[in-house]
Amino acid sequence: MVVAEVPKLASAAEYFFKRGVEGKQFRPTILLLMATALNVRVTDALAAESADIVPSELRVRQRGIAEITEMIHVASLLHDDVLDDADTRRGVGSLNFVMGNKISVLAGDFLLSRACVALAALKNTEVVSLLATVVEHLVTGETMQMTSTTDQRHSMDYYMQKTYYKTASLISNSCKAIALLAGQSAEVAMLAYEYGKNLGLAFQLIDDVLDFTGTSASLGKGSLSDISHGIITAPILFAMEEFPQLRTVVNQLEKDPTNVDIALEYLGKSKGIQRTRELAIEHANLAAAAIGSLPETDDEDVKRSRRALIDLTHRVISRNK
Amino acid sequence: MLFTRGVCRISSKFLRNRSFSQTLLASHRLSIIIPEHGHSSPDTHKGYVCRGTTYSFSSPVFGGFRHHHLYHQSSSVVEEELDPFSLVADELSLLSNKLRAMVVAEVPKLASAAEYFFKRGVEGKQFRPTILLLMATALNVRVPEALAAESADIISSELRVRQRGIAEITEMIHVASLLHDDVLDDADTRRGVGSLNFVMGNKISVLAGDFLLSRACVALAALKNTEVVSLLATVVEHLVTGETMQMTSTTDQRHSMDYYMQKTYYKTASLISNSCKAVALLAGQSAEVAMLAFEYGKNLGLAFQLIDDVLDFTGTSASLGKGSLSDIRHGIITAPILFAMEEFPQLRNVVRQLEKDPTNVDIALEYLGKSNGIQRTRELAMEHANLAAAAIGSLPETDDEDVKRSRRALIDLTHRVITRNK
User: Which PROSITE patterns does this entry report, sorted A to Z (chain A) (predicted)?
Assistant: First the structure.
């Protein structure tokens, strides 16, 4: 789908879709599982009719959501890397580092436009609306990060809102789109949405913790990249509630690198890491509960996919890298 | 009665005073078309910018073209003066207000960035919305029996609101592409003011472009017409493809007229053609009529760009070298040079060296002057302008005066794109 007429654009666009650098494909995995979890099997009476065609066409369309979601996600990565002057992404040179900012902006635009065309082809304007809103949220989240005031940066509410926009909106709205394509009711669509939203938030919160703890449970073994870039995440925000003096340290983060060590000290004394984990577990549980509230089914495939979705809510918490 | 080419563009402020313009035009109702001298407006023109070149319709017409195409009017209704822009001026300001409301963002910095080019004074000529609003009226199918029952207020009808939506979406897509293009080109100015990237930085410009695009998509979805969504999504893809074609072409491609016309279609004409088609589809028109609307937009867009290319060389004078020459200085090879290269193969080498040695620009201009490049480009532009006018002429007959007037205005636009000289 990302093959382009113009060769240079083609190399740019497919850069992150090549084998080996396509990432964990976390989002498509969730969406495909969700598609099965919401699968409404035709009854025996209808089996005589070309029962294979309708379900498989639906599946193709739902896969389309997964593809579109990945394109939007990669497009936002390309633009973000340009905005952040990033050097590496997914273990290789970032596209802007390798080919320049211009082609990265263009490649991002190209992927977005291909996503729009693919969206249009689904012929479902509510789905178009949902995923267009996602793009808007991604932009808003990135801008919130770039342009916040000091008060905003110290606010947990602002942080959760930004995290929703930057991380959870894509997953929640694409889950909802999957449900809508399957002709599910508004209630079921909302359950799918809640799953995606809470899973996304849980994921990001643990991501924040791991940036401090890395592969070890103790502090300071993580990459510390957030705090080194002056990005204040949940653990620090919680710690600031316990130790107001941490605010001053945090304001000076970028001016004086030794402040990072001071901040880490406070963090170690505080319950910041623990409270963040607890919040993540809360959201993971909400996600699992959403799956549990889906309409009953006898179908083994459907049940298995739902168990897998619940299993994911455990894995986002227990992962340590 | 022959339809006279309207006098050259007078700014819309003047035309609010219709009697003034009527007086002006009465003296020009001749059966022979001659170059006319218009009234140039004292206010600074609001430029419509295409790839760094600004033009305005507001100056006197020079040049010695003849009209190849005259539109016969069958009725004996006395003609009013016809300024396409004033026909839709009120609706345009409705549209501008709506646009400003549509690009409001939660995050203040994003809001200032997104609305940067929608503020009063820098919203540009609104060329595209004008075309689309005229097209909407030109395709207005009025059912006489229902006339009494339905609201006579066309502007507020639901269809009209939706068609205005196409115009708004088109403007957002257009501005989004301008924002990204300026980042790509490291541009300093746009529409007479600092470019957004120059004023606020590349990052917020990239973000603002993305934001406008997403707003456009949301607005598109709200129209609940998947074919229209598809058309305008394709436009976005074409804009990107066209820009990339320009950035990454091989030497052979850069020397090819076919490649150039394809790129021009993608970069300039696709937006106009597909949005015209979308307006037709929303109006429930047949595929044939939709195709005529498409052909109008496409040919108008191509004619516009070709004249733009010429003006970059000739500027406000018919002679060479008085234009801004910005294309050729940036190594962008446009139609006049491509034609000249057919006559003088040695020009190819000169053109390859353009960016290495600025004196090559002068050499290239010499060749251009000796060649028929400028003339052939104008001729090609006129061909396309005629095709656009013919598309309007092929629309289904109508008795409705508003419809007829809008169609005349659309045809008038095909003349104006050719005769403008800056």
Answer: POLYPRENYL_SYNTHASE_1, POLYPRENYL_SYNTHASE_2
Q: Is the pLDDT of residue B156 over 80?
A: no
First-residue to last-residue Cα distance in chain A: 31
pLDDT for res B259: 92
Query: Considering only CB atoms, which chain A residues are within 8 Å of B262?
Result: none
Tokens of A26: 């976390």
Structure tokens, B404: 């007829």
The torsion angles phi and psi of B53, rounded to 5 degrees, stand at -100, 135
Are A81 and A93 within 8 A, CB to CB?
no
Cα(B152)–Cα(B173) distance, integer angstroms: 32
- The answer to whether B170 and B128 are in contact (CB under 8 A) is yes
B203 touches chain A (CB under 8 A): yes
* Model pLDDT, residue B316: 66
Q: Please report the residues numbered 152 through 191 in chain B whose beta carbons come closer than 8 angstroms to any beta carbon of chain A.
A: 180, 183-184
Please tell me which of the candidates B106, B203, B223 has its beta carbon nearest to residue A83.
B203
User: Is residue A287 scored above 90 in pLDDT?
Assistant: yes
Q: Which residues of A touch B (CB under 8 A)?
A: 4-9, 79, 82-83, 101-103, 105-106, 108-110, 112-114, 116-117, 119-121, 123-126, 128-129, 131-133, 135-136, 138-140, 142-144, 146-147
Beta bridge partners of A88: A93
What is the C-alpha separation between B334 and B368, in angstroms, rounded? 12
| Probe site for chain B from A11, A105, A135, A166 (most B CB atoms < 10 A) | A105
Q: From residue B116, how far is each of A5, B121, B188, B209 by CA, in Å?
A: 33, 10, 14, 11
Nearest-angstrom CA–CA distance, A58 and B354:
55
The kind and range of the H/E element at B50 are strand B48-50
**pLDDT tens figures, B188-210:** 667 666 667 666 777 788 888 88
> By the 8 A CB rule, do A119 and B229 touch?
yes
Q: Do A147 and B107 touch (CB under 8 A)?
A: yes
B229 contacts in A (CB within 8 Å)?
116, 119-120, 125, 128
Report the candidate in B344, B347, B351 with the shortest Cα–Cα distance to residue B328.
Answer: B351
Interface predicted TM-score of the whole assembly (ipTM), two decimals = 0.80
Write out the H or E segment, with its range, that includes residue B397: none
Q: Report the C-alpha gap between A35 and B339 in whole angstroms.
A: 56
Whole-angstrom CA distances from B76 to B1, B21, B24, B140, B410 are: 8, 20, 21, 22, 20
Interface test with B, best of A68, A74, A106 (most B CBs within 10 A): A106
Cα-based torsion angle of the residue sequence A6, A12, A13, A14 in order, rounded to the nearest 10 degrees:
110
CB atoms within 10 A of CB A167: 21
Q: For residue B32, what are the contacts with CB-CB under 8 A and spacing of at least 6?
A: none
Q: Phi/psi of residue B105, each to 5°?
A: -120, 160
